[in-house]
C-alpha cells in the first residue's frame, strides 16, 4: 500500500470513529507508520495537525446537528467529546464565532471543515533535484530538546529552539566543529518509537568525529540509503515547500518508503534568508 493510500485509510478511520475516543496510536496503525511519522507527515501535507483536524471535524458535525435537530445542547456536547456545556461553548465559539445557542437559532454564520480527501498532483513542472547515496553510520554532536507531537507542539517549539541556538552561540560552535562529509549544521528529527511514541527528540547538530565536546551530546546516525534533495530559496518557506513536495509528489511516484530512522535538514554556511540560499533534506529510504 502506497503512502497516499495509507494516509487516506487513516483519515477514513478517523471519520468512522469521530464519536469515539481516538488514540494517536490507533490512527497511525492504519497507515502502518509510527505516531511521530504519521503526525509529522499529516501536518506537512495538510497544514493542520491531526488533533486540530479531529477537533474541527467534530465541531463541524456538532454545528450541523444543532441546526437540524432538537437534541439538547448538553447532549450534543457530550456526544462530540466535551464534558461540560461550558467547554463545548468555548470551543464552538472559537471555531464558528458564535455560541451553540445562536447556531440553533440560525443567528450567525458557521464554519465548515469538510472531510479530507488526499489527492496527489504530479505536476512535473517544478522538477526535484535529488540523488540516492549509501553511507555507513556516522556521528553527530549537538544539543537536543524533547517535544510532544500532539497539537503541533513540535511545530511551535522547533523554530524557538533555532532562535535560541543562534542567540547563544551554539550555531557558530557547531559550524566550527563541523568535520565530516555533510557540510553545515543539521536539524535532526528522531522518532522515539517504542519508548515514548507521543514524543520526539529534535537535535541541532553537526557531523563530527572524535571525543564529544563537554557542552554537547552525541548521536549515532545509522547506516542507510539516503535520498538527498536539493532545496533552493529562503528559509523557512523553501524548506517547508520542499518537504510538502517530497511527500505529495516524490514518494507517491517512487518505489521507496521512509525507513523510519532520523532524517536530516542540512543548513550550509550562508544567509538562510537569501533567495539564493542552498540547503538539503536527507531522508533514509527503504
Task: Summarize this structure briefly.
The protein is of the alpha+beta class. The chain contains ten helices and eight strands.
Observed structural traits:
Arc Repressor Mutant, subunit A; Multidrug-efflux Transporter 1 Regulator Bmrr, Chain A; eight-stranded antiparallel β-sheet; 10 helices; elongated
CATH topology of the largest domain: Multidrug-efflux Transporter 1 Regulator Bmrr, Chain A
Give a short account of the largest sheet: 8 strands, antiparallel
Number of domains: 2
Structural class: alpha+beta
Q: What's the total helix number?
A: 10
- What share of the residues does DSSP label as strand, in percent? 15-25%
- Give helix and strand order, one letter per element, not per position: HHHHHHHEEHHEEEEHEE
N-end to C-end Cα span = 14 Å
If strands are numbered along the chain, what order do they take across the biggest sheet? 1-6-8-7-3-4-2-5
The second-level CATH architecture of the largest domain is Alpha-Beta Barrel
What is the multimeric organization of the chains shown? single chain
The CATH superfamily name of the largest domain is Regulatory factor, effector binding domain
What is the molecular shape? elongated
Q: How many β-strand runs?
A: 8
Low-pLDDT runs of 5+ residues are none
Helix content: 40-55%
Radius of gyration: 22 Å
Give an overview of the whole structure.
- The protein has helices at 3-16, 24-31, 35-46, 50-68, 73-79, 85-96, 100-104, 153-167, 170-177, 237-253, and strands at 130-135, 138-148, 185-191, 199-207, 217-221, 224-232, 263-267, 278-285.
- It has 286 residues and is of the alpha+beta class.
- The radius of gyration is 22 Å and the shape is elongated.
- The mean pLDDT is 90.
Amino acid at each position: 500500500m502506497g503512502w497516499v493510500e495509507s494516509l487516506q485509510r487513516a483519515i477514513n478511520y478517523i471519520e468512522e470513529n469521530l464519536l469515539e475516543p481516538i488514540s494517536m496510536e490507533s490512527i497511525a496503525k492504519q497507515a502502518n507508520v509510527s505516531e511521530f511519522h504519521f503526525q509529522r507527515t499529516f501536518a506537512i501535507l495538510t497544514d493542520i495537525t491531526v488533533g486540530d483536524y479531529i477537533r474541527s471535524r467534530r465541531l463541524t458535525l456538532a454545528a450541523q446537528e444543532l441546526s437540524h435537530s432538537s437534541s439538547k445542547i448538553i447532549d450534543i456536547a457530550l456526544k462530540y467529546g466535551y464534558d461540560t456545556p461550558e467547554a463545548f461553548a468555548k470551543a464552538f465559539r472559537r471555531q464558528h464565532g458564535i455560541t451553540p445557542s445562536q447556531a440553533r437559532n440560525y443567528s450567525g454564520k458557521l464554519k465548515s471543515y469538510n472531510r479530507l480527501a488526499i489527492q496527489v498532483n504530479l505536476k512535473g513542472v517544478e522538477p526535484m533535484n535529488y540523488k540516492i547515496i549509501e553511507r555507513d553510520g556516522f556521528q553527530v554532536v549537538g544539543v537536543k530538546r524533547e517535544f510532544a507531537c500532539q497539537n503541533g507542539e513540535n511545530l511551535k517549539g522547533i523554530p524557538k529552539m533555532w532562535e535560541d541556538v543562534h542567540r547563544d552561540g551554539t550555531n557558530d560552535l557547531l559550524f566550527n566543529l563541523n568535520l565530516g562529509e555533510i557540510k553545515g549544521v543539521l536539524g535532526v528529527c528522531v522518532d522515539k518509537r517504542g519508548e515514548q511514541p507521543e514524543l520526539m527528540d529534535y537535535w541541532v547538530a553537526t557531523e563530527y568525529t572524535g571525543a564529544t565536546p563537554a557542552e554537547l551530546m552525541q548521536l549515532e546516525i545509522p547506516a542507510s540509503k539516503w535520498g538527498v534533495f536539493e532545496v533552493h530559496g529562503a528559509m523557512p518557506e523553501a524548506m517547508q515547500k520542499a518537504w510538502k513536495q517530497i511527500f505529495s509528489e516524490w514518494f507517491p511516484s517512487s518505489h521507496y518508503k521512509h525507513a523510519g530512522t532520523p532524517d536530516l535538514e542540512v543548513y550550509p554556511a550562508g544567509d538562510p534568508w537569501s533567495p539564493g540560499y542552498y540547503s538539503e533534506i536527507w531522508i533514509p529510504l527503504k
